[in-house]
Amino acid sequence: MARIAVVAGDGIGPEVVAEARKVLDAVLPGVRATEYDLGAARWHRTGEVLPDSVLAELAGHDAILLGAVGDPSVPPGVLERGLLLKLRFAFDQYVNLRPSRLWPGVPGPLASVKPGEVDLVVVREGTEGLYAGAGGTLHRDTPAEVATEESLNTRHGVERVVRDAFARATRRERRKVTLVHKTNVLTHAGSLWSRTFEAVAAEHPDVATEYQHVDAAAMFLVTQPQRYDVVVTDNLFGDILTDIAAAVTGGIGLAASGCINPEGTYPSMFEPVHGSAPDIAGQGVADPVAAVLSAALLLDQLGHADAAARVTAAVAHELANRVPGVPLRTAEVGDRLASHAAG
Amino acid sequence: MARIAVVAGDGIGPEVVAEARKVLDAVLPGVRATEYDLGAARWHRTGEVLPDSVLAELAGHDAILLGAVGDPSVPPGVLERGLLLKLRFAFDQYVNLRPSRLWPGVPGPLASVKPGEVDLVVVREGTEGLYAGAGGTLHRDTPAEVATEESLNTRHGVERVVRDAFARATRRERRKVTLVHKTNVLTHAGSLWSRTFEAVAAEHPDVATEYQHVDAAAMFLVTQPQRYDVVVTDNLFGDILTDIAAAVTGGIGLAASGCINPEGTYPSMFEPVHGSAPDIAGQGVADPVAAVLSAALLLDQLGHADAAARVTAAVAHELANRVPGVPLRTAEVGDRLASHAAG
Ligand SMILES: CC(C)[C@H](C(=O)O)[C@@H](O)C(=O)O
Ligand SMILES: CC(C)[C@H](C(=O)O)[C@@H](O)C(=O)O
């Protein structure tokens, strides 16, 4: 039986996670879920972000389902570095998987793109780059202040995520991988990424490849998102590009993500891309679809591909039948998805 | 009389620069232009990118008008680092100015945004950050390879560009500045940018301010570009965001930029955001509007605000009267713009 750690978190986190759990229970009866109280509320109450004992407990689960953590009242970085990134790094979740589809029924912002035409997945590196926390400050608060941030990239780290991207591409219809970087400016990291990409590509003659600079990719995601199949890129570029991909496919209310440790040495973590949205928290109006799709990624990762497919089909049905202008209720959406997915 | 150095460059560079010069001559008779042969062609012919003697000559001009440099046949970084970035850094062009307007008559990709609604300017830092070239590689081509890129940020460098952004905002109608960074992950550089931004903001109580993470800004540029007035951000974020801003306002065919040394210690440089587009070079079909708008920024910088306004008005007229589906001819567009701007 799957043991899931649930970190509902702050703001709308608990609301959307409740619906994701409804759906999980409907398709995989007997899931054992343990709740962990982490996030802004706990930090305010206790000053703790992620005690080592909790980290150790989390490590004993098959997967983590996370709602959203964060609140404007917490200084920037405290929860991001101390909790979210801490988990991604401690559990070596090097594949940050972010699929984007323009679902039929969803009004996208682009005039020329029709529902069903966009179906891409960004494989964002999750454990290196500028997220390593390798920065410093000298002469703070003086005119001589200097602040640095260092992007750290290893052959080890780049190769494993590039391999993952190619493996995913071979399981998809179009079999295409786009590498995104900024090789013309970041010549050291760019060269490492390019050479590694080319080496892995040579082992996959059946996969089409292309390279784009990050600025060009940001533009093409707006003008021609249909062109992408699998995109592989570094941690920071992936952060930015996945928000653009979400924007052109109906918004982050629908965007799911998985922070995956493919080997299963550590638990993988699944979370909607949206944040805690304190402005609408507690009103029961948040869209749980991103959390539910994240649960589908969780099911897939744990080997329950059939259950995952049923959840995805339920979401497709839900979105295709939404009536524009009718406000949604979080719990009602969850009920419909659970009953549809249960079949 | 203004002394302009012209670097037409590669691909469509010479074609679009020719039209920008037509327009310049029309509104400011007597401009003294000197052509410099730099770019991929020269590198292939001589192995030289930017000889010191040429750099010294360029320094003696009032401004530089650049078409586009680059070609797929040149290894990544050679011309970017050796020419374009070399000029930006050597001439301390710390304000990389990139206005974006959705001109009436231009079909944008966004269904919900109407022409005239978007009018923003990104003030991108031009001399620091990840563009400093502070990277390294160890154990190249071995499994132990590590590659780094360092973002260098100084109070000096951040403050001057933030001040420029506020100064620009006070001259605009909405008087709003948005700082974009990633303070929750890049905590050192993010803190320097935030603290500096707040200090300068305190001196400008008449300017509204907001902060956004770069991923959120990338999303909002797609879903709600109308919300922005002046955006100030670092070198790399500015690179990415300005391509998104260009995409949502009709494409980089229309996007102008100025690499500005506000003090005038060194010449400022004006260039279309688009590249050399080798696929359409030599056919006379490239849109010269981005180059012409860059020339308008040049005129403005040299104190010829009236001439700049006439060029901008000519572009507005041209774009409002374009008939969809009718292919454009570079030289004809330039002729129309020159005659309209001459009045
Ligand atoms: C909250 C933040 C640390 C995080 C990131 O930058 O990865 C978020 O933006 C995301 O994309 O999951
Ligand atoms: C060509 C490249 C070095 C340049 C940059 O990254 O600044 C370009 O993308 C730009 O935006 O002007």
Automatic annotation (TrEMBL), chains A, B:
Q: Give the Enzyme Commission number.
A: 1.1.1.85
What the entry lists under Gene3D superfamilies is as follows: Isopropylmalate Dehydrogenase
Do you know which Pfam families this protein is assigned to? Iso_dh
Read off the SUPFAM superfamilies from this record.
Isocitrate/Isopropylmalate dehydrogenase-like
Q: Which cofactor does it need?
A: Mn(2+); Mg(2+)
Return one GO MF term. 3-isopropylmalate dehydrogenase activity
Please indicate if the UniProt record lists Oxidoreductase as a keyword: yes
All copies of the Isopropylmalate dehydrogenase-like domain together span: 3-337
What PROSITE patterns does the annotation carry?
A: IDH_IMDH
Key words, A-Z: Manganese, Metal-binding, NAD, Oxidoreductase
Q: What is this protein called?
A: 3-isopropylmalate dehydrogenase
Q: Which organism is it from?
A: Micromonospora globbae
Lineage of source species: Bacteria, Bacillati, Actinomycetota, Actinomycetes, Micromonosporales
